[in-house]
Specification:
The structure is a single chain. 64% of the residues lie in helices and 4% in strands. It is mainly alpha-helical. It has a three-stranded antiparallel beta sheet, with no helix packed on it. Strands 1-2 form a two-stranded antiparallel ribbon. It is globular, with a radius of gyration of 26 Å. The N terminus and C terminus are likely disordered.
Length: 537
């Protein structure tokens, strides 16, 4: 806007540059130094941590070596090391002894025979705390902001995890596991929206791909640490130190989300944040500029608005919750079942972690090209095919050919399930509006973790009747496929700011033959242009 002093002979022309939010992000650099720093911090602080904690009890409860002391041991060689926990239940306490080479939860708390249920209980309580933390924190984060909650949960997760390593009671340990789950759930729904809201539309896919690789790296690192560190307490401490490092870096280097500040009418604070980003990215911004944005909602929007604003926002929210539920159920059911396929639990975790990284790297090349929705639809078809084939293969006394075929389809299905689980993080964050993004993700994570509680029971059923498990997963894939049709395409589209904009996404279509969605081609979003309103004096 240009204004004059009012004197015709001696006019002073002052220019103020007005940017659209997405224009400004492109000017700052879609993935500059600042955004790269945030992606790295999120990958280390949240994704790697999730990979470590999700399977912590699973890998720290692998039966350590033991040997027989008595000559009366049935069919066992005296003083030879064994790892089969089921044999211990047929022996007296004075007939065997741990070999002492490794300390973990099993020999530390004597979790054998009738006490083995406590191992599953440790994982179950973790997944009880996770959805509670994500749901409650999501509501708070849309009210108070993302940054300080994310830092707080980083520190709390580190403190609780380190404290759990010092406990001498297994009951106290699993209680701390529930608190860890609560903290990690809160960290997920605060840190990921903060990441997405710092990045422009053209770089969100790349940022998500890099970040989601952290989950697989966390799983692989846990496997490596548990293999070479003989004390379970040292393993937990070694996998917690990075949390404090990331928290300290965030305190001094990461400001609040500018999108969150804008929607809460804190324009001056948002402009200061954007200037910090420009400094990191070595980009010059005008001294005086304004940011155009859609009108803020007349009243503060909360999570329940997703269900009451319109039938479409309600349907889209419920559809996403079901898709997350199915993705998590499929992911964890096949992940745990891979123990039977690969045998060695350490090898199982390492291979699964490497698969996570490879899948996410490969996904980068087609998520933007064919769109989020088509990727999701095709993936559910492939998941249905994989479990459908396993449904009709024999499950006992397998011939080598049948075993190889089943192994391939289980690994393939697990790989596609991991891709879906990574994709929905990005997809849901792009669908939910800024005003309810943390709350919406909290609802989806809540649904996903409910299915994580069911997954262990699925494995128990698998031992008795595998056909029921594969048929159930197949049916869930069909319903999730249908639910995916409700969702809009979000590739190359600016993030919605309000629930009204989210509701308007119902009209968005995307062609796999176009590189960009035609919906972003409008006067308000032409990148790189500075808008000026000239007012004559």
């Amino acid at each position: 806007r240009q204004q004059s002093s009012g004197y015709q002979d001696n006019r002073v022309l002052v220019t103020m540059v007005v940017y659209d939010v997405e224009e400004l992000y492109e000017r700052l650099g879609l993935l500059g130094n600042f955004q790269i720093f945030v992606v790295v911090m999120y990958t280390i602080g949240e994704r790697i941590t999730a990979g470590l904690l999700d399977f912590q009890v699973h890998i720290l409860s692998v039966t350590p070596g033991w040997y027989c002391l008595s000559e009366n041991c049935k069919n066992l060689t005296q003083n030879q090391t064994y790892f089969d926990k089921s044999l211990l239940c047929m022996m007296k306490d004075d007939e065997w002894k741990w070999d002492g080479k490794r300390s973990n939860l099993v020999n530390q708390f004597n979790l054998t025979c009738g006490e083995t249920y406590k191992i599953s209980l440790g994982s179950t309580l973790f997944f009880v705390g996770y959805p509670l933390g994500s749901l409650l924190t999501g509501l708070i984060a849309d009210w108070l902001g993302r940054k300080w909650l994310a830092i707080g949960f980083l520190l709390m997760t580190g403190v609780v995890n380190c404290s759990a390593a010092l406990l001498s009671s297994y009951t106290a340990f699993i209680v701390f596991r529930a608190v860890e789950g609560f903290c990690l759930g809160g960290l997920t729904v605060t840190f990921y929206p903060l990441l997405i809201e710092y990045i422009g539309a053209g770089a969100r896919n790349l940022a998500n791909v890099v970040a989601q690789c952290g989950y697989g790296l966390g799983m692989a690192f846990l496997c490596f640490a548990a293999s070479y560190i003989t004390s379970w307490r040292a393993v937990i401490l070694a996998t917690s130190a990075h949390l404090f490092f990331v928290a300290l870096l965030l305190i001094s280097n990461i400001p609040e989300s500018p999108r969150f500040l804008l929607k809460n009418k804190k324009n001056e604070e948002a402009k200061q944040v954007l200037k910090i980003m420009a400094s990191w990215n070595r980009v010059d911004l005008p001294e005086d500029f304004e940011i155009t944005q859609t009108d803020a909602p007349s009243e503060t929007e909360r999570a329940w608005v997703l269900f009451t604003y319109s039938r479409y926002t309600c349907a889209a929210t419920v559809a996403q919750m079901f898709i997350w539920f199915t993705a998590a159920l499929y992911f964890f059911a096949l992940s745990f079942n891979m123990n039977d396929v690969l045998g060695n639990p350490y090898l199982n975790l390492a291979v699964t972690g490497v698969m996570e990284v490879l899948i996410n790297v490969c996904s980068y090349f087609f998520i933007d090209r064919i769109g989020r929705r088509w990727c999701l639809l095709v993936s559910f078809v492939l998941c249905g095919i994989s479990v459908g084939i396993c449904r009709f293969l024999p499950h006992e006394n397998l011939h080598y050919t049948h075993f190889s075929v089943k192994t391939f389809w289980v690994i393939f299905g697990r790989a596609v399930g991991g891709f879906i689980y990574s994709l929905v993080y990005l997809y849901s964050a792009e669908i939910f509006a800024t005003t309810v993004r943390s709350s919406g993700l909290g609802l989806c994570v809540f649904a996903a973790q409910i299915s994580s509680l069911i997954a262990p029971f699925v494995i128990v059923i698998h031992e008795d009747n595998a056909n029921v498990v594969y048929t159930t997963l197949f049916l869930f894939c069909i319903v999730a496929f249908l639910a995916s049709w409700i969702l809009p395409e979000t590739a190359h589209v600016p993030l919605p700011s309000t629930v009204a904009e989210m509701d308007g996404m119902r009209h968005r279509n995307y062609s796999i033959f176009n590189e960009k969605s035609p919906l972003i081609i409008n006067d308000a979003l032409q990148s790189g242009k500075e808008k000026e309103d000239r007012v004559g004096g």
